[in-house]
Amino acid sequence: MSGSALSPSALFWRVRRAHPERLLHRARRAALIARTRLLAEWHRASVELDLHPSIQLGRDIRIEVAPHTTNVLRVGPGGRLDDRVLVRLNGGRIELGPDCHLRAGVVLNVAGHLELVRRNILSWGTAVHCAESVRLEPLASLAEQVTIADSTHFFTTPDEFFYDNTRTSPVRIGSNTWLCPKATITSGVQVGAHCIVGSCSVVIRDVPDGHLASGVPATNRPLELPWATVDTGAAADGTPRG
After folding, report:
1. Where are the alpha helices (DSSP H) in 43-127?
2. Is the peptide bond before 217 cis (omega within 30 degrees of 0)?
3. Span 35-52, pLDDT tens digits
4. Residue 68: domain span
5. Which residue among 12, 72, 116, 230 has the highest number of C-beta atoms inside a 10 angstrom radius?
């Protein structure tokens, strides 16, 4: 037997400990599906649910369904929703791809199409407001208390409530991009791949691939990405290296 192999007794106890946890997640999944369908029926709405059997669910997850709406909620294999995640379905479509993780206190407010492609993390207290389209490419992830909103409000007349005036424009976050704590991405912004958005920054314009965006409003500057450094095999004076 190799040094890393488990003895039969150790394997037995590992399986015995894991089994109740699997049962718990399955029970929570079944309860969440039943509650959501009942809520949709009560509000004369519809929700197409596709929650992979492997997902892990925390406590006090809430799904709200707006009356007379048509909605879709899909969570792929390996998905995880932690405690107190709030999903508000306002006639939208949510697709969480494989291995996506919503940490405690995440809020999704969706009337449009929200897509997390693969292995995306939304960290504690993050809020995503999707009225038209928000897409996170593979590995794009958000730190604590990040806000993404693809809609904005505007003034018209002095006495008209600005909150009643809304315009939308899609938001996209490129692959393997990191949004640091308390960053805000505003309507219509496209953030490229392999970017960093600094803490407390407000991004109001596009960020090219491989850039750092920081400040209020954020300005862009190139990042030194390790794979972007090309070794030509010669020093600056032409002397071969090594």
Report:
1. none
2. yes
3. 999 999 999 999 999 999
4. 14-154+166-223
5. 116
- State the DSSP code for 6: P
pLDDT tens digits along 137-188: 999 999 999 999 999 999 999 999 999 999 999 999 999 999 999 999 999 9
Q: Does the residue 105 lie in any domain? A: yes
Residues paired with 48 in a beta bridge: 72
Q: How far apart (Å, rounded) are the C-alpha atoms in residues 147 and 140?
A: 14
Which pairs with CB-CB distance under 8 Å and at least 24 residues apart come from 196-204? 196/223, 199/143
User: 175-232: per-residue pLDDT in tens?
Assistant: 999 999 999 999 999 999 999 999 999 999 999 999 999 999 999 999 999 998 765 4
Question: In this structure, what token pair is assigned to residue 156?
Answer: 């018209």
Residue 136 has which token pair?
């996170």
Query: Looking at the domain assignment, is residue 42 inside a domain?
Result: yes
Residue whose C-alpha is closest to residue 57's, from 88, 35, 87, 79: 79
Q: Residue 57 falls within a domain, yes or no?
A: yes
> Which residue type does 15 have?
V
Q: Is residue 65 part of a domain?
A: yes
CA distance 81 to 98: 13
- The CATH number assigned to the domain holding 177 equals 2.160.10.10
> How many domains is the chain partitioned into structurally?
1
